[in-house]
Amino acid sequence: MSDPAIVIVAAGRGTRAGGEEPKQWRRLGSRSVLDHAVAALAPYGRVIVVLHPEDMARGITHFGGTVTLVAGGESRAESVRNALETIDPESVSRVLVHDGARPFPAPSLIERVLAALEEAPAAAPALALADALWRGDGAQVTGLASREGLFRAQTPQGFRFPEILAAHRAHAARASGSAGAADDVEVALAAGLAVSIVAGDEDNLKLTWPGDFDRARRILEGRMDIRTGNGFDVHAFTGGDHVTLCGVAVPHDRALLGHSDADVGMHALTDALYGALAEGDIGRHFPPSDPQWKGAESHIFLAHAAARARARGFDISNADVTLICERPKIGPHAEAMRRRLAGILEIAEDRVSVKATTSERLGFTGREEGIAAIATATRVAR
């Protein structure tokens, strides 16, 4: 089954949350609320972010082409429909719709929604009400209400794409595009779609009031997702007058043979970064069968791996590369290599290590037939 399309609705002004800017743009830890939501959902499919028309220029600068931006409408329903109309029905069969003010949808919750769509045309997460319900008039309790069968709705809400698109078009026709719907489940139910309930998550809060940001910060402080990957690469020697290692040209009486520039150190580190997120290796993202990568400089690959980390909400905590060879001598060039790698990864130099060892004249590196490299990288998400 194809990846779903992801619609993140962030076109509101969020005035109830306070602050000097819309709540989706406010900082929560090291990134904005909207960044957290995008990072959580980006691994599951193409992301479409719906913004207020006044925020479109900001969105272009902020996301830099990593998501599709759509201008919102007069109501939430119209904003969602604007996004749905941009989706190709030939390539997408499912869609998830998420509130940009919910920064913490857990992978397990997202996967529950997607799993439910295998059997149902629509599915949404919710939490059963546990508190007693009162009716009131100002500060006075006027009566009680039953909580039986009541749920607190959450997002992302999932739908089979043709059905929810038809439902939104029908809603727009009935409402002249302006009447509100609390969420997409309301639109779906009005169209006669059956909606399955899956278990929600207490941490999947929607930031509505000023105090919600305090709770979100506490959740963020209690979260730490640490992932480590390793990489290994080997390149044989061929004729030449230098080798490129960790982005630095090192004079030598031979060169390294490879489809790209054969930077064995940078290749190992790139694979470590991909491995930390279970995203395969260089060959998956830049297949050697594609002629456009012949002779390519390896910083292209490393920068892509680093960008994938940021897109998924991870910071690169540290990177460690060990080069294995008899010659050339790495020590005189190690600091330049560290600076080069740190610049590509956009992290501080003290988070990058480059070192070398020999194989004591054993094996192919000992016979000076080539150079090997091993690398480890750690990524941290909050």
Describe the fold and architecture.
The structure is a single chain. With 382 residues, this protein is an alpha/beta fold. Helices cover 30% and strands 29% of the residues. The chain contains twelve helices and 19 strands. The chain has helices at residues 33-41, 56-63, 76-84, 107-116, 161-175, 184-190, 210-221, 264-276, 282-285, 299-311, 334-345, 363-366; strands at residues 5-10, 27-28, 31-32, 47-51, 68-71, 94-99, 122-128, 133-137, 140-145, 151-153, 157-160, 195-199, 225-239, 242-245, 248-251, 254-256, 314-324, 352-357, 370-381. The strands form five sheets. Strands 1, 4, 5, 6, 7, 10, 11 and 12 form an eight-stranded mixed sheet that branches. Strands 16-13-19-17-18 form a five-stranded mixed sheet. A two-stranded antiparallel sheet has the order 2-3. β14 (242-245) and β15 form a beta hairpin. α3 packs across α5 (161-175), α5 packs across α6 (184-190) and α8 packs parallel to α10. The longest helix has 15 residues, at 161-175. The two termini are 30 Å apart. The model has no long low-confidence stretch (mean pLDDT 92).
